[in-house]
Model the fold of this input.
Amino acid sequence: MSTYNFHGNPTNGHHPDPDALLHLTGGLLKSLRAEYPGLVRYGEIIQGEAELSAEDGDPPNRGKIRTALEAVTIGAAAGTGSLAYTRELVQMLAL
Done:
């Protein structure tokens, strides 16, 4: 069963499309580097998990990603690109 989030990215339940996930994590990391350099390490964790998932074909480690996204959510202000990417990832991964 495939579903789509608000922006049309396929989610396949809890195993999102690897390309869509990598695209969002790349955007998050770019935003974090520009807006919140102190939070980049969390973006790198998320991107690393997305890359690992794409390589091995297994679903991403939602626990690690959730923890990193929570840290970004706490540190990022409303209206920033970082927070927008965080929300999209939460939705895509059904966290």
